Amino acid sequence: MEEKSTHPEEILVVVDEIFMRQLMREALVRAGYDVVEAATGEKALEEFQDSRPDAVLLDVHPSGMDGFEVCQAIRRQRGGEHTPILMITGRGEEEQIHLAFEADATDFISKPITGTVLGYRIRYMLRAARGAARFR
User: Fold this and answer.
1) For 60-118, how does the pLDDT look when each residue is reduced to its tens digit (9 = 90+)?
2) Are 13 and 36 within 8 A, CB to CB?
3) Does 112 sit behind a cis peptide bond, omega within 30 degrees of 0 on the bond before it?
4) Predicted confidence band at 1 (pLDDT cuts at 50, 70, 90)?
5) In what order do the strands lie in the sheet with 107-110?
6) Is the pTM of this model over 0.70?
7) Contact 111, 86 (CB under 8 A)
8) Closest Cα partner for 82 from 59, 104, 49, 58?
9) Structural contact between residues 56 and 48, judged by C-beta atoms closer than 8 angstroms
10) Dihedral, CA atoms, 43, 40, 51, 80, nearest 10 degrees?
């Protein structure tokens, strides 16, 4: 029988706007997650290597590298090939959604984002990832 972990799952939030990053942090902490933050694409890759988060919440336009490049770089890292990545797109930005999936994102969420919806999207994305891991 698989032993359940007693520590909260960790989410890497990659958003350059500090106010938006704080709102996301608060929503995720309320939902029971630990949060690691990065304001730039380059910092996101460092944090991913250092903390090996359970999931990544990635804006398509952080400072530095764009989110699509960051997503692809995470996928090339050890452990990154199966890490759920939820990309944040602008409302009505169909091209960004297409590019997110081309970069191998797991899913996307459009702005504006409510905390409740964010918590549920992360929860179900992680649940799906755990289910898929059983078949690998």
Assistant:
1) 999 999 999 999 999 999 999 999 999 999 887 889 999 999 999 999 999 899 999 99
2) yes
3) yes
4) very low
5) 34-38, 10-14, 55-59, 85-89, 107-110
6) yes
7) no
8) 104
9) yes
10) -100
CA distance 126 to 84: 7
Instruction: Find out whether 83 and 55 touch, Cβ atoms under 8 Å.
Output: yes
CA distances from 42 to 26, 72, 100, 129, 132 (A): 23, 13, 18, 25, 29
**And the tokens for 120?**
């549920």
Distances (CA, A) of 14 to 71, 91, 108, 133: 11, 18, 14, 24
C-alpha 29 chain-centroid distance: 14
- Rounded CA-CA distance 97/91 in Å is 10
CA distance 62 to 15: 5
| Both tokens assigned to 75 | 């996928």
What is the amino acid identity at position 11? I
